[in-house]
Each structure stands twice: as structure tokens, then as C-alpha cells.
Amino acid sequence: MTQAQFEPKDPGYAQRVRDSFALQGAMGTIGAALGNIAPGEVEILLDWAPGLTQQHGFLHAGVVATALDSACGYAGFTLMPGDTGVLTIEYKINLLAPARGQRFRMVGQVVKPGRTVTVTEGRAYAIDDGREKLIATMGATLMTITGRQDVKN
Amino acid sequence: MTQAQFEPKDPGYAQRVRDSFALQGAMGTIGAALGNIAPGEVEILLDWAPGLTQQHGFLHAGVVATALDSACGYAGFTLMPGDTGVLTIEYKINLLAPARGQRFRMVGQVVKPGRTVTVTEGRAYAIDDGREKLIATMGATLMTITGRQDVKN
Amino acid sequence: MTQAQFEPKDPGYAQRVRDSFALQGAMGTIGAALGNIAPGEVEILLDWAPGLTQQHGFLHAGVVATALDSACGYAGFTLMPGDTGVLTIEYKINLLAPARGQRFRMVGQVVKPGRTVTVTEGRAYAIDDGREKLIATMGATLMTITGRQDVKN
Amino acid sequence: MTQAQFEPKDPGYAQRVRDSFALQGAMGTIGAALGNIAPGEVEILLDWAPGLTQQHGFLHAGVVATALDSACGYAGFTLMPGDTGVLTIEYKINLLAPARGQRFRMVGQVVKPGRTVTVTEGRAYAIDDGREKLIATMGATLMTITGRQDVKN
What is the pTM of this model? Predict the structure, then answer.
């Protein structure tokens, strides 16, 4: 994926992503960590663990999707104004290959930012014995939420 | 959803679902349990927990998707022959409302079974103070895997 | 599909759907006609024609999608206020079987109406020698557009 | 989109795409033409016409989807063996902006080819007064069909 250049509306976008991420219990449970944060792009890193597997011992598709959805959501969030929240309207994930590996890298990118609706794409990679392989693609649609105290990050 | 009537190819379909489910570390991690299992339909139940939340304290969309994807996958699996495995090719989820509640119920149903490709639909409900509310819909496409030792459940 | 009961905001919803439909050149080109119109549900009917085929002589998936997308979009439109327009944000279609038949019936239904975002589902049926068969399912997400002269139906 | 390098299994892949395209009545009806054909990538071109519009006079989303689905399907077809056919299992389209323009360009690319299942992505562009603008993205899943006389292109 080559990434378009975007201008963030809020210069504190990276800290805002980190603050929101820290509030997600689910990210701690799966051991996900934030990687690179840039305007319109967020990376999430994750290690394999026995509590994250499907029946064949690979990373569960739901875990891949959880981390990739977060990468897409935060990619969109980097371009939203300071006093807003972000909700995922929908996403679609294609699972291209079994999530076999020791470490995983998810990258979310904004395709088109919008005042109300933002469209993003994501790619998940498995790192298996040092080789990185594309294992999933996602398309996610986000909504910017304004003026709601319960959804402001 | 009204459910079509399907004839399972393997009379031991319910046990096969239970055996496979027990192998999924991720289901244990999120505290998911199997509910009703019928030909072409599987229910999964889940309690809210602090380790499963997004930044607003609701159930994380990824957790909803993980459980709903499993319900859809196992719904398809009930109709597959005995010596096969199931993989999710892709799914799409629409998040209709915040996953606010104490308990959650996911139902997966087969729309069309096929020799190679099976199409399913799922619905996730939040149970909040005793009232059940539709919070997500899913469409998932599955593949029947035959003759691979590493994917046979 | 069983359909939830919805209360239209605009009692003239059916005429509004007919007026908008009549403006769609593409509906005339493929020979689509409106069938039943109810709050939250719209039916579209279509005949097979040689100009609508894919390479095997069946109805082209794009034609199935075009009619089904319209059925979903107008299903959502029946529940929107009088002075608004509707745009499709995204849809996903699963093609379950070749679109073999003489006549086709598409049904769109609202799953969850919203002030900004409405989620719908659709089913396409082929009528082949008098027997109706499910050939496609759709999930479509719509946006209500307010206060734009260029998008008000 | 940057494109991975793929090796076609059938050196006559481009002619095979042209032969199949010529059989699609729907492509003639909407006035679509093949552009560039490369291993894993196909381009389709289209002019605006009054019979292809939605209610606001823009190109109908269904027409955009029809052409984009064909671009994705043929992109996958370029990498399939000579004696096979291609069917679309499902696709999802995000409509990013109204399809306003005089000419349209759709590009389909293979993300991951497979023996049975191939995953592709597509982008649709509107050319309006000489400026090209991204108006839609697609993710499409294809199936290779072998040994069926009724589906061999």
C-alpha cells in the first residue's frame, strides 16, 4: 500500500491515539501494542500466545480482526478533530492465509477521510521465522462522533 | 431470522463442534461458551468482562466479531462431512449499536451450504438489564477443507 | 427474512420512492420495476434479457447487485424524513448460485434505521420455470443526506 | 496500489480475457471496454451515458460495481489455468464519492491468487474535466471453476 499524504486537524493526534488505546481492555488482553503512528496511518504489533489461538494453534481470526480493526479505527482517528470520538460502522476482512507466526503486524490506512464517514484499509502480516507474509486484508468504514460525552475517543 | 431445514451429513456434528471449540484458546480467553447446536445453526454465549472492552467500556467490536465469527463458522461446520475442516474465507460485520450489556448472545446460521463454499449469517445480541437488543450482523463465507491433517476441525 | 415493524416519518414514503426510482436511468436500462413498497421494505422485479448477461448467459452479477442495491437503498429511504436524500456508503453481496431464470425478484429490508446511518439487508431470487431460488444476499449501509439540493431523493 | 509480480499459468491469458469479455452482454449494454491487461491486473473503461444514471444524474453505483467487479474478476482470471472458469463468490464495495464525470476507469488487481480461492481488490476513478478522482474501492473473492462445461471462461 502506498499512502496518500494527509494533514491532521489536531496536532496532538498521536497522543490522543495513545490515550484512547490505553483505555481498551481488549488490547491489553491480547497483548497488542501501538507501533508507528502517522497522519492517516497506524501500526499495531502483537505476539503469538496460547490464549489467542483457534483450533489449529494459529492466531484466531478474531484476534487478527480485533487488532486490524483497531489499526484501521485509529488510522481514521488521527485525522479527526480533537473533540470527537470514532466508531466503526462496519468492516470486512479477507483471511488470505493461516495466521502462523511468532509475531504479527497490522497496518491501518485512511483511503478517504470525511466529515462524517471515513473509509480505511488494513493489512495484517505474520512474521514467521523472520519472514513477513500478508495474511489478511480489511476494509473498514468509520464514523466521526461529535458532541457525545460517552464517545469522545 | 427464520432458519431453513438442513440435513447434517455427519450425525456426530454436535460433538464435533464441541471438540473443536474446546481446542480454541481464544474462546477460553474471552470466556465464550457454546449454547444451542442444531444442523446449520450454532449459538455462543459470553459475559461482559473488563478485559474485553474498548475505550468506552463496552464490549470491544473485535470480541463481538470473534464470537460471532465462531458462531457462523461452527454453524457451517455442522453441515460438513465428518473428516473435514472449516476455514473462514471472509466475513463482514455491521456494528449496529454499542455492545452495552452484561451478557451477549451470538447466533450463526447457514444461508447456503456448498461442497466447497458455504455462506452464513450471524446476529449478535446484547442483554442489558434483561432486555435483548440486536447489536451486530455478520455475513461470513466459509470453505470446507478436505484431506489436510493440519485443518481437520 | 421476517421483517421488523417500522413507522415511516413521511406518510408519502411510497410516492417518494416511485418519484426517485423514475429518475434512475439505470433502472430503465435494465428493465427493473418497483414491486411492493412498505415501511422498511421494497421489492424490485426484473426480466432476463440478452443485454444483461455475463459470459455464460446468466444474469450478470452486476445487474443482480444493481437491482438489489436499489431495493436496499429504497427500503431505507421509506423510513427517512421527507426532505432528505439517500446515498449508499457500502454494500457487500454474496453470489450464492448462478442467476439462471426468466424473472428475478429483489427484496430489500431495513435491519436498523438511524438518524445518519441505516443498515439494510437484501435477498435476490431467480424464478426459473416457476420455481423461486435464492441466488444472492446483500448487506448495505446507507446514509441519510439532509440539506443538500443535489442529493434530496 | 502497487502491484505484486505474478507469473501467468496460461501464456494466452490476455486473449482469454478478451474472448470472455466479448461474451458478456452486460458489458456491451453499459458500453464498457477493456483497457490494459497484465498478469494479475485488468483495467476497464467506461463513458457516462444517460441510461447509466442514478436519480441525481451521476453514474449509478450498480454500474460502477458492475464494471469494477468485472475488472476484479478478469484480474483473477489472468492467473488461472487455461481450461478453467471464474465465478465471483462475493464482493464488497465502498462508494467514496458521487460518480460524477465524463469517463470512468476501473482497475482490478490480484492480492492473493489461490488454487481454489483468489482475493482481489479494485479501484474506480471518475475523470471529470480531465481530473481523475478515486470514487470507489472493492474487495472481491473469486473461485476457480474446473471441469464444468457451463463455466469455463
Answer: 0.93
ipTM value for the complex: 0.92
**Residue D95 grid cell:** 462508494
Q: Please report whether residue D6 resides in a domain.
A: no
The total domain count for chain B is 1
- Residue stretches of chain C with pLDDT short of 50: none
Helix (H) or strand (E) holding C77: helix C61-77
The domain that holds D31 is classified in CATH as 3.10.129.10
Note whether residue C32 is domain-resident.
yes
Shortest Cα distance from C92 to chain A (angstroms)? 9
Angle, helices A13-22/A61-77, rounded to nearest 10 degrees: 150
The three cell numbers of residue B131 are 432486555
Q: In this complex, which of B25, B55, B90 lies closest to A93 when CB atoms are compared?
A: B90
Q: What's the mean pLDDT when you consider all of chain B?
A: 93
Say if residues A109 and A41 touch (Cβ distance below 8 Å). yes
What 8-state DSSP symbol labels residue B60? P
A 61-120 residues with CB < 8 A to C:
89-90, 92, 116-117, 119
CB proximity D147 to B under 8 Å: no
Q: What is the mean pLDDT of residues B57-84?
A: 94
Q: What is the pLDDT of residues A42-74, one digit of tens each?
A: 999 999 999 998 878 889 999 999 999 999 999
User: Please, what's the largest Cα pairwise distance for chain D?
Assistant: 47
Cβ atoms of residues B121 and B109 within 8 Å: yes
Answer for the pair A111, A148: CB distance below 8 angstroms, yes or no: no
Question: Nine-digit cell at A135?
Answer: 495474511
Q: How many Cβ pairs within 8 Å bridge chains A and B?
A: 121
Domain span holding position C24? 13-146
Which of D116, D141, D143 is closest, CB to CB, to B90? D141
| C-beta of residue B108 within 8 angstroms of C-beta of residue B75 | yes
Domain assignment present for residue B6? The answer is no
What single letter denotes the amino acid at residue B58? F
List, for residues C83-107, the tens digit of each pLDDT value: 999 999 999 999 999 999 999 999 9
Q: How confident is the model at residue D147 (pLDDT cuts 50, 70, 90)?
A: confident
- Residue with cell string 436519480: D55
In a domain? residue D4 = no
Interchain pair B141, D141: CB under 8 A: yes
Q: How far is D112 from chain A (nearest CA, A)?
A: 7
C-beta atoms of D26 and C51 within 8 A? yes
Q: Cell for B9? A: 451429513
Cβ of B61 within 8 Å of Cβ of A88? The answer is: yes
* Nearest residue of chain A to residue B26 (CA atoms): A52
